[in-house]
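Supplementary Text 2. Reproducibility record for the structural model of the 205-residue chain.

All settings were left at their defaults, and a single model was retained for analysis rather than an ensemble. We include the record here because the model underlies the residue-level annotations in Supplementary Table 4.
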Amino acid sequence: MGPDTAHQVSSRIFTVPNILSFFRLALVPVFLVLVIEGYDVLALIVLIVSSATDYLDGVLARRLNQVSRLGQLLDPAADRFFIFATLIGLAVRGIVPWWLVAVIVGRDALLVVIGITLANFGYGPLPVHHIGKIATFCLFYALPILMIGQAFPAADYISSPIGWAFALWGAFLYWWAGVIYIVETVRVIKIPRVNRPSESDTVEG
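Retained model, structure tokens:
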């Protein structure tokens, strides 16, 4: 199998990695209910299962040559939904403030607006900035760490400061990346039409 084949992106829907991603998405409402109802140990178990399938679908996509466009959308979407579910569940219980929910959801709403704006000017999505990746990493681990303190109160004095450090840094970096996307979007749409790259030159992802 040559390198070109190994990295080929298909338009298939029903692949093993995609089925795992659909399974992860189906776990989101289950996870949200468990968090809201205070079943933190069970919620953590669901989160561990989700993380395992997240790792597994990436490995299988590469080894089975089943990388697909749908999979490239489902994987980050599942991560986002788990972050939102954790935020909303913990906010409902008064463990995290609603302003943190607004900060995270507001940044993602901004990305939707940016995406629509770029599409109207004939561009695909901007490439993901490394600061945005770091922010997502911080948030993805901050909220489960905070949940550990709820599931196991004896560990709260350790998990709470660590979780909040990750959460606050993640929120800050999330918006830092958002500002970078705004600046880049303004720069792109100001390029004269004759100098704009063709559709084949736009970055997808």
